[in-house]
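Researcher: I'd like a candidate sequence for this fold, 441 residues long. If you have to choose between options at a position, lean toward the conservative one.
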């Protein structure tokens, strides 16, 4: 199946035999006209609805274009054309490396803990991201089948030729007044027709429609045959509400997690309208925050804990109500005392641009935000930290930033190494107190 691999913030234009050939520009990709038209409509619809969008309209070389934003994952257009969007850091080391890194980071995001990282990363070396997802789902369902599909008792009513269960007298008289060879009964049927199996069957049908890889198609067909006698779920939300992962159902957990993602559109992307297409897109900010939170907790010293998404303070109070909640990404605490406020930013800094115009690539709004966090969570005294991904242009901490009107408050911009999975520290005693690893790590 046709497709294209791009990176965050790359631009897409429509191919056209009449238009002049597009120059070979980094970050520019060409897609079929029908696919471009669908993407353009998605961008227009999002703009009209005032939504935070994964796609925006732009121009390149005098032609209409669309630009992807900070979402990564897979877009699948209605005609099956797949667009794989990878993290922008992968432009240096190539698509395969970026795909493997993304899979490792996704494992830290809620709803993806079930990914078998090593197997998925191995697959990522030779197949697109959507095929990796489908392959992981099929492996999880295959594991369920090998362990055995679970059955359950459920109540049935039917007009049978034999007496089975409890005779329903009023219904029996209504249906069988002139038929003595029939019994309208209510009985318990032990059957694999239960919500968990119906959901897996429905997700298998979706996966079979999505995949173009022969090995995935063959396995999906085999698994669909196993579920042939079980009706596919038609009311996904209702069936998910009745899922029971109780005793003897633990082997269903990973497969159902994938089914939930496939069937319930839990990706932040909502391709609304008449031509919905299955797409799995995720904001890199959320992925980076989850990745840092998981691994930074292992770097903390004894007695300190890491708390995420705190919201105990507000910026202002008006008529007895708290307005504008202050929600830093991470807090380092002991008991109820906050020692450090940290916020993750998925932005590429350049430590070589310390001039008044570029300012390393930092955003002024982030400094306002961290200043507010420091005043409210640390009473204006201590350290607040901005965490950015480590790159070749930003591999050591920046010199400390000070607030002239808040002399007791310091701000640090620190790199987090995605491969070593730890935060680079500046060798400052006020920060080293909380961490196991020193600045040289």
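Model: Candidate sequence:
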């Amino acid at each position: 199946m046709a497709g294209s691999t791009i990176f965050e913030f790359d631009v897409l234009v429509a191919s056209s035999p009449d238009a002049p050939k597009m120059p070979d520009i980094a970050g520019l990709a060409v897609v079929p006209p029908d696919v471009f038209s669908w993407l353009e409509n998605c961008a227009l619809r999002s703009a009209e609805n005032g939504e935070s969008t994964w796609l925006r309209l732009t121009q390149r070389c005098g032609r209409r274009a669309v630009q992807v934003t900070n979402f990564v994952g897979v877009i699948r257009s209605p005609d099956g054309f797949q667009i794989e969007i990878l993290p922008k850091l992968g432009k240096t080391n190539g698509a395969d490396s970026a795909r493997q890194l993304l899979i490792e980071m996704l494992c830290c995001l809620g709803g993806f803990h079930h990914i078998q990282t090593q197997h998925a990363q191995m697959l990522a070396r030779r197949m697109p991201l959507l095929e990796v997802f489908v392959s992981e789902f099929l492996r999880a369902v295959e594991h369920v089948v090998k362990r055995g599909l679970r059955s359950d008792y459920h109540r049935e009513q039917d007009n049978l030729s034999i007496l089975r269960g409890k005779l329903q007298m009023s219904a029996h008289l209504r249906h069988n007044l002139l038929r003595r060879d029939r019994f309208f009964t209510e009985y318990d049927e032990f059957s694999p027709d239960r919500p968990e199996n119906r959901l897996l069957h429905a997700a298998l049908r979706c996966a079979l429609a999505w995949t173009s890889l022969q090995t995935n198609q063959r396995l999906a067909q085999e698994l669909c045959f196993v579920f042939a006698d079980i009706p596919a779920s038609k009311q996904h939300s209702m069936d998910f509400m009745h899922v029971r992962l109780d005793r003897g159902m633990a082997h269903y957990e990973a497969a159902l997690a994938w089914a939930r993602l496939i069937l319930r559109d839990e990706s932040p992307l909502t391709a609304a309208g008449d031509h919905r297409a299955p797409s799995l897109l995720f904001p890199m900010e959320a992925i980076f925050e989850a990745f840092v939170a998981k691994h930074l907790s292992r770097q903390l010293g004894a007695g300190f804990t890491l708390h995420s998404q705190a919201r105990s303070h507000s910026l202002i109070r008006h008529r007895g109500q708290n307005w504008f909640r202050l929600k830093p990404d991470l807090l380092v605490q002991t008991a109820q005392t906050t020692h450090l406020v940290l916020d993750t930013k998925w932005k590429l800094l350049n430590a070589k641009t310390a001039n008044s115009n570029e300012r390393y690539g930092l955003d002024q709004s982030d400094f306002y935000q961290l200043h507010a966090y420091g005043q409210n969570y640390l009473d204006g005294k201590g350290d607040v930290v901005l965490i950015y991904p480590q790159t070749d242009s930003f591999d050591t901490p920046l010199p400390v930033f000070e607030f002239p009107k808040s002399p007791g408050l310091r701000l640090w911009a620190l790199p987090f190494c995605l491969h070593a999975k730890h935060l680079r520290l500046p060798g400052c005693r006020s920060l080293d107190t909380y961490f196991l690893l020193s600045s040289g790590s």
